[in-house]
Specification:
The chain has 78 residues and is α+β, with helices and mostly antiparallel strands. The protein has two helices and seven strands, in the order βαββαββββ.
Length: 78
């Protein structure tokens, strides 16, 4: 099981900040943005980035050592 964390507008759309997902049945590599947009229709038109173990990445290539996936809304400010 991998911990998936949601922040900002993503968390608001999903009404949750965290969940555990089992990726063992997912065909790898998987494009994470597409995976989550397909899983949650409320994210279809939303822009966000994904991070795997604290590194921005749109693709999950392996489950080895993966502890966390994070969905982050667009950043603003300067």
């Amino acid at each position: 099981m991998i911990t998936v964390r949601y922040f900002g507008m993503v968390a608001e759309k999903l009404n949750k900040q965290e969940e555990k997902l089992d990726f063992t049945e997912v065909q790898l590599p998987v494009a994470l943005i597409d995976f989550f947009k397909n899983r949650y229709s409320s994210l279809e038109k939303m822009s966000f980035v994904t991070a795997v173990n604290h590194t921005i990445s749109n693709e999950l290539n392996s489950l080895d050592g993966i502890e966390e996936i994070v969905l982050l809304p667009p950043f603003a400010g300067g």
